[in-house]
Amino acid sequence: MANVLIFGATSAIAQAVAKLYAARGDRLFVVGRNPAKLQALVDGLGEQCVGQMVADLDDTDANARRVAEALDRLGSVDIALVAHGLLGDQLETERMWGSAEAVLRTNLLSVISLVLPLANALEEQGRGHLGVMSSVAGERGRPRNYTYGAAKGALTLYLQGVRSRLWDAGVHVHTLKLGPVDTPMTVDHEKNALFATADRVADAIVRRLDGPGGEAFVPRYWAPIMGVVRTLPETIFQRLRFLSGR
Predict the structure, then answer these.
(1) Residue pLDDT, tens place only, 122-148
(2) How confident is the model over 140-160, as a mean pLDDT?
(3) What's the structural domain count of the chain?
(4) pLDDT in tens, 164-175
């Protein structure tokens, strides 16, 4: 039985992850922004959920305290997952600093404000898994989502450093590079064959967090796709409008 801590637990993917952990008998502490959604999740998890916290994780100054309170309730943590995010409106982020700052704060700064105390706690106990949701958008800047992608790319780089730092401490740091998922966050996006379901992604995340740390594309078919996208020369990339267009 593992102790599992999930931040951003009310997202569709995180809810699916939490249900998988509960089904196998793990103990969960869940943190989310929406009280009604969080309570519905807790009710569904039943006795496997030992605690909950309503929190706006963009309030970065309070996140170290929130991590401490959650760890105190769990006693120790085997698996911590940071799962919140904000896609935002790319066009708005190009015209208004407030919109750009919101995307950068949610997807990078607020995540780091959680990773920092979580990494320190796991290092002190000398074990555990820390999973963080990043994105394939961070592999290359594209006009359709480069503000979001910049935050995720910076996050991926930050986690590389955390992973190397904690390597000798017995702590596994997982960077989960998600492709598009059919969730409420992408409800206005035209769907294609590359969109995954939340349940499929959740299953892949749980299996990954049971193994050694590292970077993983979720689903795995994104690895060869982004390998090509990442290495294309710009003179070719700009001519491929399905990649470089809006």
Answers:
(1) 999 999 999 999 999 999 999 999 999
(2) 96
(3) 1
(4) 999 999 999 999
DSSP one-letter code for 195: P
pLDDT of residue 237: 86
For the stretch 216-221, contacts whose Cβ atoms lie closer than 8 Å and that sit 24 or more positions apart, written own/partner, are 216/174, 216/175, 216/176, 216/177, 217/136, 217/177, 217/179, 218/176, 218/177, 218/178, 218/179, 219/179, 221/194
pLDDT higher than 80, residue 216: yes
Using CB atoms within 10 Å of the CB of residue 39, give its burial: 0 to 12 exposed, 13 to 18 middle, 19+ buried.
Answer: middle
- To the question of pTM greater than 0.90 for the whole model, the response is yes
CATH number, domain of 176, equals 3.40.50.720
Put residue 192 in one of left, alpha, beta given phi > 0 → left and psi -120 to 50 → alpha: beta
Characterize 190-203 residue by residue with b for buried, 16 or more Cβ atoms within 10 angstroms of its Cβ, and e for exposed. Answer: eeeeeebebeebbb
Spatial neighbors of 217 by CB under 8 A, at least 6 apart, are: 136, 177, 179, 223, 226
pLDDT at 239: 87
Sheet holding 172-178, edge to edge: 49-54, 27-32, 3-7, 79-82, 129-135, 172-178, 214-218
**Nearest CA-CA partner of 184 in 8, 13, 6:** 13
